[in-house]
Amino acid sequence: MPSRQQSLQAVFDYSWERLLPEEGVALAQCSLFQGGFTAAAATAVAHVPLARLLALTQKSLLRVVGNGRFDMHELVRHFAARKLPTLPIDSHAVQTDHARYYALFIQQRANQLENETAVLREIQAEMGNIRAAWQWATRHNQPEILRQALPGLTSFFRLTGAFREAHSLLGQTLRQRSLAAHDRSPAAAGAVSAAQSYFVQRVVNLNEAVQLAQTAITIGEELHNAPCK
User: Comparing C-alpha atoms, which of 10, 28, 6, 37 is closest to residue 77?
Assistant: First the structure.
């Protein structure tokens, strides 16, 4: 570790040791948020009340960034995240709640995207968290979360012209999960493949888009023809 980072780690450790136990847990849980968060999100995901957020702000471990949002310096977030596995809490459950919260967040706004500029801005502010939720659901085999977030996420990418980011994110999911081969929810594989075919047309080439569309159709036919259990 570089000497400067060692010094910053020492400063953080000094501050950490002076936190109340519940403040330390709150700070570590808030390290899951990417690009800031609202007090409502902190309460829903980590059960951290506003008073505790404000206490951490007074100790310069969180900062208020406007519009009711909180954030932390990236190094503080890094150091706090390293504390999370050492605490007597179910960090996996907190991460699951984070992913579910932001999947629901974008699902609830999917139908408003076409005509509401304010909704686009609201989602833009939370893209760090939405992206982290999507990637976590990919790594931890949570196709229900992927399916929940997919319509709103792809609509947002389409409306903002972020074709390359969409292509990269969805492509990573298809490669990493190999959804079409062994996912417990083939419908998720079909949905992601169909969505990716749209962005491939705009980023790569038509042939690959056709292949992805055909994969989505094949999965759909298999699901339709599968015997009911």
Answer: 28
